[in-house]
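Fibronectin type III domain containing 7 (Lynx canadensis), 733 aa
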Amino acid sequence: MAGGPKKCLSFIGFSLICLKMVASANTAPEIPTIDQAYSKISTSITVEWATVPGATSYLLTAEDGDTVIETMVANSPGTVTGLKAATLYQITVRSVSATGRSPASLPKQAKTVLAAPILEVSSPSPDSILVQWETVYMAIGFSVSIMRANGLGRIWKENTTNTSLTFTRLDAGTLYTIKAYAWNANGTPGDDSTCNQRTSPRAPANIQVSLDGGALKASVSWAPTEGAFNYTVMALSDSSELSCSTTRSACTISSLQCGTEYLISVLASNDAGSSKSTSSEALKTVACAPGRVTVQEDPPGHLSVAWSNVDLGDYYVAFVKSDDGLEVHCNTSLTQCNFLSECGFTYFISVFAYNKAGQSPLGDVFNYTTAPCCPSDINPVLVSSDRVEIVWSPVRGAELYETKAVDGFKVVECNDTAPACTLSALECDTKYNVTVYSFSEVRGSNMSCTSRFVTTAPCSPEIKNVSKDAFSMIRVHWRSTNDDATYTVTAQGEKGLYRCSSTGESCVIGSLPCGSVFSVTAVAETQAGRSLPSFSVPLETVPCCPAGLTVTQVTQSVINVSWTVGTGAQTYVTVLESHTGQSKCLTHQNQCLLGCITCGVNYTVALKAISATGLTADCTYQSYSSSACCPLGVKLYRLSPNGIRIYWQASRGSTNYSTDLYGSKGIFTCAPRAGLSFCDVTEIPCGDVYTVMVSPVAETGLKLTFCPKKIYSVTCSGSTLGMVIYRGKRNAE
């Protein structure tokens, strides 16, 4: 099978050993002889025997009737361990060599010594050590000794049958070595037990306590104590216990409570325990910050600060600091202080209690904001009929301003953060009681602000009608409900402004230019201001009469009347009137032809200028005389070969005439003497055709050209006397 050879070799080897042992059985080592067996330790027995030649080791056996314990050793002496204390054992020895093991030697009895007592040591006081142990089996007494661990000084030894022993008059804080063992009835000592124990330290002396009131901690110091490893400072009050530990001779206790009296004690300790409490030192901390602080302002301008009484407080100091940095304080043994205050400030208030330990911790800092100041320079910068704009200087502490205008039961108000307000929707010509209240979110409105009266501007008048008193004067009537108002009426047009004023309900505006359009408004004015203008009323004056008028005779029965443009006139009516009748024309132009004019008659000339709206201006001018009538029956008679007489029938009235002959060889003129109806032209060439016109001459010397013309032929043959041949008639040119 697999792995067989290894096991086989092992088996063969074992067989060889067995064979060798059998072969050498006759040469086993000799049996040892025990010289002595004794016990020095409660768990072992030491055996001594004579050495056996050839033995390589020895097998020790210890039997107590219940158990058998064997131990292999190299040579004598040998020790069997793991035994029971104070127990009788039967000891045998066998010698062992390579050839085998001898039989057991003759047995020898030996008893293990007593077990060592198990010590419990402590130091109940700085100068004593208490040693305790449990009962040791088979022990009838105990021996305990003590000495300094450093070996200096004497040794104290005590024997006792008890299980405890106290050593006194020892040095405090000193390390001692304690040794103890038990003995049996034979006086044989058992195992000993050794341990070290330090005496507890003495209580520290010369304790010094100093308080840091601001930090609420106490620094405690003392003289060092011999043998102390650690120090614990205790601070005890009715409600708390604080402590600190250190290896040095000073310690700081933190987190003390204000307003508390503590008892301070210091304990020294080491591995043996702590010292007993010393006499305590009393410590009073600073008082706690006063609570239930109340701040009242009554009356305004006076702050009253009150607080509750605190334990260990000898007196109090209240500090009041305004937000502009100014600070005041008061010192009192009472629980109240009074301070002066100003409007619009925030005051920060803190109260401290004091005692011999110092100042109390800072408590809650209270702030109190007084009511904002009232505006004192209220100034209406704009007053109209329905609104008032008011401005004032900003005041301290105001976050918002509330403006109220009161008129009986009607209140108009506005709120704004700016120091200005426009009150609108007011009644005109009304006195309002206006108050500006300052407001802060903390304190609300300052209701003690004074008011002032503001009267709105007068109401706008209502123009009832505009009447014309004369050609260039108008009277304006209006209606108003204002008190003590002065009214100003303005007529405004392209030609300028025209005004009149009155405290009544009408006034007259004069010297208005003709042919103009005006917008008429009325304004009321009082000490409070000016009203808005009334609704405008249009006003149109009559058109202007033309500055110049010219009458020109066109024909004997037709005249042309022309004139300059009259401002504001759109239509003109021209009338010429005499005893013989009237001639009239209507036109939009600045001239007009009038017919049916009777010659030689005086006419009156009238002109009406009419505006687009129908306003009429009657314009009169100087009379006009129509031209004289053209003569009738014009005839030519030859006077000589070169002379012609022109004859006509004169019109009514005395009129001067002028005669003109127009031929190819020249123009020939003659003018008769007054009263004659003929005139002669001499040296006129014959054999030509002449156009003849006899015209009346106006008083101005102007010769009329509209009379009819006749054509005559003047021949050179025949009698020198007689008529000239009439050739025809020409129209006036």
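The chain has one helix and 64 strands. Confidence is low (pLDDT under 50) at residues 1-25, 719-723. ok done for today
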